[in-house]
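Course assignment 3, question 2. Fill in each field.
Student: A.L.
Task: Predict the tertiary structure for the chain below.
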Amino acid sequence: MENKSIWTKYTEQQLDELEKVNSGYIDFLSECKTERECVEKVVSDAEAAGYRDLDELIRKRVPLKTGDKVYRVNMGKSIIMFNIGETPIQNGMNILGAHIDSPRMDVKQNPLYEDSDIAYLDTHYYGGIKKYQYVTIPLALHGIFVKKDGTKVKVSVGEDPSDPVFFVSDILIHLAQEQMVKAANKVVEGEALDLVIGNRPIKIDKEKDAAEKAAEKAVESMDEIDGAKVEKVAEEAEEDVKEAAKNPVKQFALNILKEKYGVDEEDFISAELEIVPAGRAREAGFDRSMILSYGQDDRVCAYTSYQAMLGVSGMKRTACCILVDKEEIGSVGATGMESKFFENTVAELIALMGQDKSPLVLRRALANSMMLSSDVSSGFDPLYAQCFEKKNASYLSRGLVICKFTGSGGKYESNDANAEYIAQIRNIFDKENVSFQTAELGKVDLGGGGTIAYILALYGMNVIDSGVPVLSMHSPWEATSKADVYEACRGYIAFLKNADKL
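Answer field:
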């Protein structure tokens, strides 16, 4: 049983639709490089399509009915969307789930330092990366500072063509004899992934700067300043100037942050700053058949999932889309799939729908649901054919991937979907002429990976992994086929409209 490239099956109209889907996807990838940015974009698109904030409806006790569309955001980094169907929710929902976090580097809480006239930000990598891939490439800084008074300051530097970019340095080949014989996981150590952010020192006039600092501190204090206070302020100002003199390059960077964003060094303590590859997603290949971008694991499934939600109406069963954080580090924490946010939100939904608030209703709603856990698959790469079992690998441009189980080795830590459920999915896709393929993640004993599928399966619902094949997964720049992106969107719409209780 062998699938073939699906490019030749498309009509001119479908090719136009394919390009339109992928144009929006390229913009999404380019504008949404963090979880917070993804959520903001989804909220904007959802509200434009008539979705309402569930938290606001809960506060006002607004009842929900068939056809209503709502969303709920969790701490700015996860979101759930619902399109209320005709049948009672205890009969189950049709759920799409994906994650919006991607491997990257995070800035530490006490990150800023200077060494040998170079200013750095200390980082801690997030998720599974090949550390050596992040050196000497243009990097951007995205995230927020949250000041002590709760003020949030958004930061995005490195994406606009007029912006500066940042980088992690590497040793030149002429001096790399020792480095070149190290194992790949040791070529670049985690503590060496420090971001170069500056090289220019401030010019210091100690007496003038001390006086100016003292004046600034006096204004900030807004107190009646007696003689002792003046002396103390002056001493503190002088110490600040001495510190700046020791680290003038670091101080230059701090001055820029203060001027542009109004933040001080201590504000790094309550900041979430992510270091990601700089630049827009791009079409790839002479034929422009592929997309090359950071973060396609798993934003390719996140984008097609929420677009599918926006593209359906008149639902028989309630449709749901879950986009979560922290999958790359085990789905942990308050914004990961293991939190109770999804379960609690369904309970709130049931209450507003005026249904029996018995715990049994919630349990039945979850157990009777069906889910596509939408996550990417490793596309077959002929340059590394030894890592794949060709009959059970996914291929670019052969359609949406169904993965019966993930995990590793002997299916450890996986969800293993039932044959009856797979048969229903096959039937839905065939009726809607959705191109799909089946796959595993590489050879049995070579590794493996997990998704959020097993977490939702704990409720007793039918869950299967499905997604898009990706080349160079978890690298700074990953590749997908436009055809597979298009089929994912079509497949997710088909599932939302047609899946029903077995």
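Instructor remarks: Residues 204 and 245 are 7 Å apart (CA to CA). The chain is about 35% helix and 20% strand.
Grade: pending
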